[in-house]
């Protein structure tokens, strides 16, 4: 590295730590390209990997005759190529509002995210349901890895893709995050100002549940801290074992055989992921789950740190009888300062909607009573986009 490059790098590091990088300095630094990259010319190229994508309809829901469907790919900031299903209203003209959909955590686009995307396309939105990095038809190795940073980036990469489509209005892009992708969606919305509206369905905060365990409101701080440290030790021992074995252990998806004393919410997961209702061969939850040591980074990286700085509208939807309802209530209080105490509530452009009688998985596919409030979602996005 020549003297000029060293001086520029030092200046960038100093101003970066002080929060004052000037655009002129960034542009100048970008021109200082190491010799080994100059010949290749690919230092900053966004390049998609060619993926092998399924051509037949293999979803857990019937195909609509009201929308056009096609497979698409796009690249995130880490160079991982993501696979998605795009749904476009038939006979649509002009620039459309758009929505990116993902979740649940451990699910694939052929399950409930695709159902949401197709239904919202029937209502006039251009939508994509995508597989996260390392999952489903998307690229990334090792397979079945999860990361709070990379998975948050996946949502922003979807916004990148939608923003440049000729039939999308880039000022009218929203997201739908389901289950664990609800927390990731809020993290993305706090970071990405291009997201003009977020609907968060039957939310899990994967950082909170990994760090504190389930139902942390029933535990004291010392118990939470002790359990977290025990879990850290086990997971770091697993890291050593994985490296020694040359393979990554999986945490296991929903078990094939449930014990009689399994918690009710585990039985509800079984009823979706292990039956014809929602089973899919590429779904982590339907099969062997994610890499076990992926839990470590979620434990140390809270997702809702800046949720109270989200300026765009947010709609949280949760079932009245869902074991996970406290995640949405916590997120709502974090954003608004108001504890909803299990009730629907609106504060400014933030809303918590409690669906009477619904359990967690009812908001995956509607359950037996059509619990997903699609009319509400349609109105929320149209109203939010009109106001933006």
Tell me what the structure shows:
The chain has 388 residues and is α/β, with parallel strands linked by helices. Among the domains are: 3-38, no CATH class; 67-205 and 303-387, Rossmann fold (3-Layer(aba) Sandwich). Helix content is 37%, strand content 16%. The chain has a 9-stranded mixed beta sheet with strand order 1-2-4-3-5-6-7-9-8, sandwiched between helices. Strand 3, helix 4 (112-122) and strand 4 (126-130) form a beta-alpha-beta unit. Helix 5 packs across helix 6. The longest helix has 25 residues, at 221-245.
Topology:
Elements: H1 3-17, H2 23-31, H3 35-38, E1 67-75, E2 81-89, E3 96-102, H4 112-122, E4 126-130, H5 148-163, E5 168-178, H6 180-191, E6 197-201, H7 206-212, H8 221-245, H9 264-273, H10 295-300, E7 314-319, H11 325-336, E8 345-347, E9 350-355, H12 362-365, H13 374-387
Parallel strand pairs: 3-4, 3-5, 5-6, 6-7, 7-9
Antiparallel strand pairs: 1-2, 2-4, 8-9
Helix pairs in contact: 1-2, 5-6
Précis, in short:
The chain is an alpha/beta fold. 37% of the residues lie in helices and 16% in strands.
Kindly provide the radius of gyration, computed on alpha-carbon positions and rounded to a whole number of angstroms.
22 Å
Q: Which shape, going by the Cα principal axes? A: globular
Q: Output the structural class.
A: alpha/beta
CATH hierarchy, class of the domain at 67-205 and 303-387? Alpha Beta
Query: Which sheet architecture does the biggest sheet show?
Result: 9 strands, mixed
The percentage of residues in β strands lies in 15-25%
- What level of helicity do the residues show? 25-40%
H/E order of the elements?
Answer: HHHEEEHEHEHEHHHHEHEEHH
CATH architecture of the domain at 67-205 and 303-387: 3-Layer(aba) Sandwich
Q: CA-to-CA gap between the ends? A: 46 Å
* CATH fold description of the domain at 67-205 and 303-387: Rossmann fold
> Any idea what the CATH superfamily of the domain at 67-205 and 303-387 is called?
Alpha/Beta hydrolase fold, catalytic domain
Oligomer: single chain
Mean pLDDT across residues = 91
Number of strand segments: 9
